[in-house]
Design brief:
Layout lengths: L1 H5 L8 E3 L2 H13 L10 E3 L6 H7 L13 E4 L17 H11 L1 H7 L5 E6 L8 H5 L3 E8 L3 H17 L7 H14 L13 E3 L3 E3 L5 E5 L4 E5 L14 E5 L3 H10 L3 E2 L3 H7 L1 H17 L10 H10 L1 H7 L1 H15 L9 H4 L4 E2 L6 H11 L4 H7 L1 H9 L3 H13 L5 H9 L8
Parallel strand pairs: 9-10
Antiparallel strand pairs: 1-2, 3-4, 4-5, 5-6, 7-8, 8-9, 11-12
Helix pairs in contact: 7-8, 11-14, 16-17, 17-18
Length: 432
């Protein structure tokens, strides 16, 4: 993973914590979770407060994700909102954290001047043993504490202030008044500074979870749809009257679901021509074949001329696989007619021709599913399904790893927002 680290393709854009008082606050949060304090003098954190260095020190990548449910968080600064989430069991963790930051911005800004917030995103279950456990999660509640107990002190001051207003004898209680002065020195004027987050409950809608080999849950008005391996416990048995189940091995039904629910854009010249997505996927398919033919190939030599030469010299291999010529034919059809009759396309090839509708709320989740169905496109996989990308990367040869890192660095990382906008129609987004 060293290449990924150096290129900031994994654990990139994290916030470095090195100030002693911030490390002390982080350690108090760790102690609050029942974990041993860190001995590190410097470490990086993501939006949730997860640190890859502390995970390595503790020997536990799930130290903020016990049982892979009820995710923990540590907020040291409001600036964390602009960081990625680099380790999670649910695809919507970042979305929920963004909602929490935005709904409680005033409180977070005030508290983190003197303290750190920590706690859990509590679901309705403590462990996930079947699909029913995932389906039962309709909303989450943020349980929030503070490292220096600033929240507790603010609550105590609020109670004393209320007593001062309602009890005529309270003004004679010097001990109470002195305590109020002591607390106010720590919390400031709580009439002006909101220190207690006031929105803690949020909806838990469509998501991907890394349980049972990966589970997609899509929520529509009258029905919930689950896409996963049919061996997952509870498949077709949990709430069959309100849940539709689709096998992850059934591309035809998955495609029909995405199309009927309006989550995808079918191949039309109106977006295909400008995006270059199909041409991109054709190149990715050719590169995958080149790697398959010779994993030790010197991929540093690959350019447009080399690729054309490879295609000519390996015509039989290209024809036998069929993906590259299929995409070239689809591009010709679109150029000639403006669209493609998707019903004439084999189900397993349909995902090569589509992208998520950019204006749909589930655009990122849908693109994640599409990228999983098109594993040769490692660029799309990196953007939308980093867990899947990292797993695939581990199986690549050393020379192909070098090529993949170089390709991502020279294309996507140059201008991520512009790249996503062109290929997928998605503008700048906090999920990236």
């Amino acid at each position: 993973m060293n290449r990924l680290l150096e290129a900031e393709l994994i654990y990139g854009r994290l916030l470095t914590i090195r100030e002693p008082h911030l490390i002390e606050r982080y350690n108090k949060a760790l102690s609050g979770f029942g974990l041993r304090p860190t001995a590190l003098a410097e470490f990086d954190i993501d939006m949730t407060g997860f640190s890859p260095q502390i995970a390595a020190e503790l020997g536990d990548n799930d130290y903020l994700d016990p049982n892979r449910v009820n995710r923990r968080f540590v907020i040291m600064t409001p600036d964390q909102e602009n960081l990625p989430v680099v380790h999670t069991s649910f695809s919507n963790t970042a979305g929920l954290m963004h909602e929490f930051y935005r709904a409680n911005a005033r409180a977070i800004n005030a508290i983190t001047i003197k303290d750190a917030l920590y706690g859990e995103i509590e679901d309705s279950v403590s462990t996930v043993e079947s699909l029913e456990d995932l389906l039962s999660i309709n909303e989450v509640q943020f349980r929030v504490l503070s490292a220096e107990d600033l929240l507790g002190k603010a609550g105590e001051l609020r109670q004393l202030a209320d007593r001062l207003q309602t009890d005529p004898e309270a003004w004679r209680d010097d001990a109470m008044l002195n305590r109020m002065v002591e607390l106010a020195k720590l919390t400031g004027d709580i009439r002006q500074n909101m220190l207690v987050p006031d929105k803690l409950v949020f909806r838990h809608d469509a998501f991907w979870a890394n349980h049972f080999g990966g589970v997609y849950v899509f929520v529509d008005d009258k029905i919930t749809t689950v896409i996963c391996d049919p061996s997952a416990p509870g498949f077709r048995r949990s709430r069959p009257w309100q849940v539709s189940y689709i096998s992850a091995k059934d591309p035809a039904t998955i495609f029909d679901f995405l199309a009927k629910t309006g989550r995808i854009e079918l191949p039309r010249a109106s977006w295909v021509d400008a995006s270059g997505l199909l041409a991109h996927r054709a190149e990715m398919a050719a590169l995958a074949l080149a790697y398959q033919a010779d994993p030790a190939l010197d991929f540093s030599r690959i350019d447009a001329v080399w690729l054309q030469t490879f295609l000519h010299r390996n015509a039989e291999l290209i024809a036998r696989d069929g993906t590259y010529p299929f995409l070239q034919e689809m591009l010709r059809q679109i150029a000639a007619t403006g669209s493609i009759k998707i019903a004439d396309v084999a189900p397993e090839r349909r995902f090569l021709l589509i992208r998520a509708r950019p204006d749909h709320a589930d655009q990122w989740l849908t693109n994640r599913l599409i990228s999983q169905m098109v594993p040769s496109d490692f660029v799309s996989r990196f953007i939308f399904d980093k867990q899947g990308f990292y797993e695939a990367y581990e199986g690549y040869s050393d020379v192909f790893r070098e090529f993949v890192v170089t390709r991502l660095t020279q294309t996507y990382l140059q201008d991520k927002a512009a790249f996503r906008k062109r290929l997928y129609g998605i503008g700048d987004d906090d999920n990236a």
